[in-house]
Amino acid sequence: MAALAASPDRAVRVGGYWAKRAARAQTNAWHRLQKCAFETLRIKLFAPTWAEDPSAALAGEAARLERLGRGGFHVPDVARVTPESLLLADAGREVHETMRHADAETRLALVRRCAGLLAKLHRDGLWHGRASLRDFVLQGDTLGFIDCEEDASRLGDWARPRDLLLFLQSIARFSGDGALVKEALAAYGDLAVKAQLAKTLRWISPAIRALSPFRQSLGRDLKQMLIVCEALA
Ligand SMILES: Nc1ncnc2c1ncn2[C@@H]1O[C@H](COP(=O)(O)OP(=O)(O)O)[C@@H](O)[C@H]1O
Ligand SMILES: [Mg+2]
Question: How far apart are the first and last CA of the chain?
């Protein structure tokens, strides 16, 4: 793990593997928004899931990756777990990265495939814990998941709507008018998870709109959330 020690990055590629270190305390804008929303509204959709114990989080991530792998999903093989780091086989290129450099047609095809895979995961009774476009990878033509770091088990029935919300928000980044988000929703299909998310967002969207004046500090997350609310309305 010398490569990891020498790098400022969270994960470092070493040959056909990725070495990933334990997380530091996380306090980005999304985490603050999420914590604030959960504490004021007590809606499980926003319950914090980031790890308080970074070493336990790595072991949890390894276990969740293995669970998805047993379910037939393409995920990295776990080569080694220690309290400080994970060693994972390379599972392909981040879809988010591919999206950044892709044309509109490729983006649409990718979003539809990711939505279909997320729907399959959810139909199988599983969840990812976040499922943003950064958590999907493409290896050759095989689509799969990485980064199962967030433990959504404490969310119970809300783990899957939460996956869907974060997935849609990550697409909203590429879709100012919401068209791509609507395509993703169509490709996801009519799972009860979608209705469950729509119902909650209908209820809280006025509150989200009311937060608009704070866009400067919470800007992108809020804007994406508004696009998702509108696409699901
Ligand atoms: N097994 C893997 N296969 C392919 N890419 C990986 C793998 N593990 C990590 N990466 C790359 O490293 C980045 C950071 O790793 P990730 O597990 O997403 O940690 P985090 O997002 O919590 O920092 C990923 O976005 C991806 O680009
Ligand atoms: Mg990641």
Answer: 48
CATH number of the domain bearing residue 86: 1.10.510.10
d(CA 28, CA 33): 9
pLDDT bin (cut points 50, 70, 90) of residue 25 is low
Whether this prediction's pTM lies above 0.90 is answered by: yes
The ligand 1 site (C-beta within 6 Å) comprises: 10-11, 18, 20, 76, 88, 90-92, 94, 134, 137, 146-147, 149
Query: Which pair of structure tokens corresponds to residue 82?
Result: 């220690």
Ligand 1 centroid–CA 77 distance in Å is 13
Reported as a single tens digit per residue, the pLDDT across 40-89 is 777 788 887 777 788 888 999 999 999 999 999 999 999 999 989 999 99
Q: How far is the CA of 147 from the centre of ligand 2 (A)?
A: 5
Instruction: Note down the domain range covering 227.
Output: 2-232
Neighbours of 230 (CB within 10 A): 15
What is the Cα–Cα distance from 28 to 144, expressed in whole angstroms? 26
